[in-house]
Amino acid sequence: MALSNVLETPAAGFNFDNAARNAALEGLFERGQAPKPLKTGTTIAGVVFKDGVVLGADTRATSDEVVADKMCAKIHYIAPNIYCCGAGTAADTEKTTDLLSSNLTIFSLNSGRNPRVIMAVNILQDMLYRYHGQIGANLILGGVDCTGNHLYTVGPYGSVNEVPYLAMGSGDLAALGILEDGFKLDLELEEAKELVRVAIHAGIMSDLGSGNNIDICVITRQGVDYIRPYQESEFKDNRKIKYRYRPGTTPVMTEKVVPLKLEVVQESVQQMDTA
Amino acid sequence: MLLNLLDTRGLRSQLKDSVPVAGLCPHGAYGVQDSLRSGFSSVKNELLPSHSLELSEKNFQLNKDKMNFSTLRNIQGLHAPLKLQMEYRAARQIQRLPFLQSSNLALDTLRGSDEAIGFDDILNDPAQSEMMGEPHMMVEYKLGML
Question: Taking a C-beta distance cutoff of 8 angstroms, is the pair B143, B13 a contact?
Fold first, then answer.
């Protein structure tokens, strides 16, 4: 076996070895045939109401013209009081929110405090700016902490905005229209949920990249209510018959039983302390 | 400064981390240019990074440390970064042999990176790398004898 000519151990983290090859291959493929990452093509929205924050998202994940996932979960858990909707490249949003959640858990274990939304935003901002937008994650962070109810948006280059209502993704124009029209300060819970639902619905109707069901996540000081799905799409396909086969449908031709010979090699008995 | 005093031949290899060395060995495995993965060999390929993030990621930790030390120097005076850098140097010397993976626990604690998870903890973990370098060559490279 030949040992390779490695002079230093490879650095941890991203590996750019294939970047030159990918750039060369990009030119070889005809237009539009190069493999593309799975994008979510989404409508996500968030609204701050009197007692907390409501986040909403559709559930379609597309890969160019094909719907890759009809029940994609776009509302990710960050901390018990912070949730995050992600638009953009699906893998990037997943991994980034996972890392963020792990960092905040370490922090809260170390300090014994609940994390604040602004901490999550700062960590995300640093992480995304470091990679200069190569990580395609557009995120809406919403949460309730000791300083109040917050809703932030973080762009792929690390730009941050704090806003009372927000929509992102490819369907954001339609959703934002509904939100602009219907938003008032200090909404009630049911009004806020209805507003977000209508906004996401508008995004689903007007955008090809959004569709299927609507998920809603309500975050309040008392806790989190993750309703998935809040509203199912009318065009859900109903299977007409059951496709499960009865046991015995396939006839058994031959049967051969080979008993496994097991030897007892070691036996140790540990007495339980029943006091 | 401290760097001049300690710049013996053995520690020269530490500088290689910040400057990409061209022509020392072709990028492919087994020392031969790997045309399938990296294309035909050209000077441009070896000198310039192929991805916009490559250089910035390679030097990220170094640049971050430099920035922190210079801020510390401006706020607290020269003694603060000097003392810290002394501790860093001491911690960096607690390593296994070059071809074995060391945990760098002391260095992590000093930097504060034992309480943070980033992409370099998940992706391309050196402890699980599939290729092993030739031990003799790696030790010679580290000592500057190669």
Answer: yes
A42 tagged catalytic: yes
Segments making up each domain of chain A, as ranges: 39-231
CB A145 within 8 A of CB A220: no
Q: Would you identify the CATH topology of the domain A39-231?
A: Glutamine Phosphoribosylpyrophosphate, subunit 1, domain 1 (3.60.20)
Dump the DSSP string for A17-83. TTHHHHHHHHHHSPTTTS--PPB----EEEEE-SSEEEEEEE--EEETTEEEESS---EEEEETTEE
Write down the catalytic residue from A42, A89, A96, A97. Answer: A42
- Do B57 and A20 lie within an 8 Å CB cutoff? no
Interface of A with B in 14-33 (CB under 8 A): 14-21, 23-24
Whether this prediction's pTM lies above 0.90 is answered by: no
Residues of chain B with pLDDT below 70 are: 1-34, 36-40, 44-47, 146
